[in-house]
Automatic annotation (TrEMBL):
It holds the Pfam family LemA. It is found in: Membrane. Keywords: Membrane, Transmembrane, Transmembrane helix. One of its GO terms (cellular component) is membrane. It comes from Oribacterium parvum ACB1. This is LemA family protein.
Length: 181
């Protein structure tokens, strides 16, 4: 008779440990996929820097654009990452605006190659963001589902933020790629 409560407690204890470990693995998956986004942002930052160098050679008096390059290359939290992406999109929009005023720049082989590289990096970034958001969706579903929500609450876990889709930036970047073909 005394053995039944001990068995029940042991089952609950091991279930709790199992759920806790599962949530920990999901967090690791999110961190790993977020690193892929960070790597893509660093590559994109470097390409934007190269685009600015090329543009600077054509438009020396457009100093405002060249001094506002995003200082961060990767974000720590999801909110930081969303801000880095938005800042990079803003800089790309500014480069596009400068390029429109300099037809020689738009036809430059180096600038065209960098536009292609940005387009490729944008595709990589979109794919990496989908993976992060998929991982976030999985853990968020676990966090809000009973009885795993009890374990998440005990661990102090809250729902994770998603990486945002910047539709304005996407429209701007689509316009940026009009000379790639």
């Amino acid at each position: 008779m005394v053995l039944i409560p001990i068995i029940v407690l042991a089952v609950v204890f091991f279930w709790f440990i199992g759920q806790s470990n599962k949530l920990n693995r999901y967090v690791v998956s999110i961190e790993e996929s977020k690193k892929t986004v960070d790597i893509t942002l660093v590559k994109r930052y470097d390409t934007i820097s190269e685009m600015l160098k090329v543009a600077k050679a054509y438009a020396k008096h457009e100093e405002k654009v060249f001094t506002e390059l995003v200082g961060l290359r990767q974000g720590g939290s999801m909110k930081d990452t969303n801000q880095v992406i938005a800042n990079q999109n803003d800089v790309l929009s500014q480069i596009r605006a400068v390029a429109e005023n300099y037809p020689d720049l738009l036809s430059s082989e180096q600038f065209l190659a960098l536009q292609k590289e940005i387009a490729s990096e944008n595709e990589d970034l979109a794919a990496a963001k989908r993976i992060v958001n998929s991982n976030v969706r999985v853990i968020n579903q676990e966090i809000v589902s009973f009885p795993t929500s009890l374990v998440a609450g005990f661990k102090g876990m809250a729902k994770f933020d998603f990486l945002e889709e910047d539709l304005q930036g996407k429209r701007d970047l689509k316009d940026l790629n009009y000379n790639i073909d």
